[in-house]
Design a protein that fits this description.
heterodimer, A: mainly beta, five-stranded mixed β-sheet, four-stranded antiparallel β-sheet, 9 strands, 0% helix, 45% strand, B: mainly beta
Amino acid sequence: DAKTTQPNSMESNEEEPVHLPCNHSTISGTDYIHWYRQLPSQGPEYVIHGLTSNVNNRMASLAIAEDRKSSTLILHRATLRDAAVYYCILRDYLYSGGGADGLTFGKGTHLIIQP
Amino acid sequence: DTGVSQNPRHKITKRGQNVTFRCDPISEHNRLYWYRQTLGQGPEFLTYFQNEAQLEKSRLLSDRFSAERPKGSFSTLEIQRTEQGDSAMYLCASSLEVTGAEAFFGQGTRLTVV
């Protein structure tokens, strides 16, 4: 599986935007970029995913570099409830037709939000 | 539907005992996954079902571990002859059979082997 690299931790202030980077220099043409987050004592939850174009949803935005070797998860206005571990994961969509692999999580970025 | 449900939430067992965990996925999801998570690490993939068929198993799934999904609905994960190294959070997730489908996770079962 292609690997991702994320900072171990980041700090931000409440109500400010947060940009969480992810490097995936060995990404293949069929890898989707997925982001999940895990709040304390919870299972992971889906945040957003994309392939080539930037994506927006109610939780966040995903900015994907033109060469797809990096991406940035953007939380537009962080709240204390956004404090979590954020995982950037590459998922080969060719596997999704059967014999699909599970998500391969790294250690993620521990996001700390200061009030 | 209230999402993916896992029972029990916590389990303490003595070394050498067998334990079984249950996962009830979201009803229309035909894919079900089991993961294990130890402190400070991300979840590690254990195994995957599509309906009742177990299609993939990680090398982490030793012969003491067995998972089933009879009738393609709920799933059970059994650990036989538990060891202290089995202490972890066991997470279940389910998803639709769609390219890049979002996986929905349960809150997990925390196993402590003493």
